[in-house]
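Supplementary Methods, section 5.1.

A reviewer requested that the exact input to the structure prediction be made available. We therefore reproduce it here, unchanged from the version used in the analyses.
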Amino acid sequence: MNPAGTFLERSRYYLSGEYLPKLRHCAAALPDEALWQRANESSNSIGNLLMHLAGNVRQWIVSGIGGRPVERDRAAEFSARTGPSARALLGDLEAAVAESDSVLAGLSEEDLVRPCTIQGRETTVLAAIYHVVEHFAMHTGQIVLLTKARAPGAISFYDDSGWTARPLWGGDEGTR
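The structure derived from this sequence is encoded token-by-token as follows.
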């Protein structure tokens, strides 16, 4: 596979094959009351972060790269103090990732250097994808940390019994 194809394949894998399964584990481990808890007023809840991830993926990939119309209220993603259940939020996030995967699957090597404007920023398709994957990873890490704090011992992602960490969420694709 060429470098562009590898970049697109790995980006698609990280979003749907690594980060989403980790978020599913977190949501399943959380007590219901923990979803919308904030550590303090300047922090986000797990519910806020799940809404924010769906909005970001849709705005940057589905709309910004794919050209599909998307409605987003970014400020509401952070201001919500209560909202849908973890199941509903995950369902929406899974739909957003599936929509973005459809866009990414249709891209060519030439598309990666195409300019686009997202959130008023001049960028390229490659840079926009890179931003979304990095952004998704960062917030996934925050959700994992919050879940470990609110449900100690309830989640584990790797079998660390041997020399290498083996993923527990479905295969060893993450080790390639």
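The chain has five helices and four strands. These observations are discussed further in the main text.
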